[in-house]
Write a structure and sequence with these properties.
It contains nine helices and 13 strands. The strands form four sheets. A five-stranded mixed β-sheet has the order 3-9-8-6-7, with helices on both faces. The longest helix is centred in the last third of the chain and has 22 residues. It is 31% helix and 19% strand. The protein is of the alpha/beta class and 319 residues long. Helix 3 packs across helix 4. The chain is globular.
């Protein structure tokens, strides 16, 4: 019997109970890749002006990886998918669905999944689409892929995550550049497979807090070029960069995440003590431990990888 495992993003949560006799969807394999530029806490301290000890002990980062100037998100995702296919044996001709989770695609149009599909040599019958979610993206996408496979009678899906926030962060921004790293993951999901079944999820949204994490300009609301202004628009640098109110995010996590875990357990008929491991979103080490402590999760049950990679957005949970 496989261990019980909780997967949690910042907003959304799914539970994987073991021993189910009937499977809608099975996670068959997961692979990941990181880009070529490795940075240490000392490097981040030099960029942001933060104390290195704070970055290691509070944020939790010892090392992280970001894209080199000549690397792209699609290329990084390609590396993760190639690794997945090599290790698991799934071949391009068997893939029915490719889903790409990202808020920072290589281009506004076309979507990353179409570009990645061509690179992987997937058949033209393969359905491809992007999901524009951040830290909650992986857990959200699991349910979307499950429904897509079940409703359409399809068998195999590849779920990709890659959100290179390094391309939208300001070097001196303490709230973002001291937190995020780049990575990509690829998950093979099979309908009626034989490995790990998903249970019932707990979802929720609080749109009133949208300004806590935002890139204001560059899209349809404040476009770079519009029909009415044929010249390139001038925006403040901060309007084109990722802006995050760390304290607001921390307060949200502490107030909402424990209750979401509790609700998910109830939906699946389980208790906190039934769970062997918790794969919570790696926002920061301080945030992670505070949420776990509030709920009473033991240290040995808490999976932590922020020290090696930073907060890799939608890639943290599968990694």
């Amino acid at each position: 019997m496989s261990p019980q495992l909780v997967l949690l993003s910042r907003l959304f949560l799914a539970l994987l109970p073991s021993g189910q006799s009937f499977l809608f969807m099975s996670i068959e394999a997961i692979a990941w890749a990181v880009p070529g530029c490795r940075q240490t806490a000392a490097d981040i301290a030099d960029q942001t002006g933060l104390d290195e000890e704070f970055i290691v002990n509070k944020v939790g980062i010892r090392t992280r990886y970001i894209l080199n100037p000549d690397e792209t998100g699609v290329e990084l995702a390609m590396s993760a998918c190639t690794k997945l296919m090599t290790q698991s044996g799934i071949t391009a001709d068997l893939i029915d669905v490719l889903v790409f989770v990202t808020q920072t695609p290589d281009h506004a149009i076309p979507h990353n999944s179409a570009l990645l599909s061509a690179r992987l040599g997937l058949p033209s019958r393969c359905a491809c689409f992007d999901i524009g979610l951040g830290c909650s993206g992986y857990v959200y996408a699991l349910s979307i892929v499950e429904g897509f496979l079940s409703i359409n009678g399809l068998t195999n899906a590849i779920l990709v995550t890659c959100d290179p926030y390094s391309r939208i962060m300001a070097a001196g921004d303490k709230a973002t550049n001291a937190v995020f790293g780049d990575a990509a993951t690829a998950t093979w999901i099979k309908r009626d497979g034989a490995r790990t079944a998903l249970g019932k999820a707990d979802f929720g949204t609080d749109g009133s807090q949208a300004s806590a994490i935002m890139v204001e300009a560059g899209r349809a609301r404040w476009p770079m070029v519009s029909l009415h202004h044929d010249e390139l628009q001038s925006y403040d640098r901060d309007q084109l960069r990722l802006r995050m109110a760390g304290r607001d995010v921390f307060n949200f996590v502490l107030s909402r995440v424990p209750e979401s875990i509790s609700a998910c357990l109830v939906k699946n008929g389980l208790k906190l003590s039934d769970i062997d491991y918790f794969a919570l979103h790696q926002g920061s080490l301080h945030m992670l431990k505070a949420a776990a402590q509030k709920l009473g999760i033991e240290d040995q049950k808490l999976l932590v990888n922020i020290g090696e990679f930073g907060n890799t957005v939608s890639s943290t949970v599968p990694m």
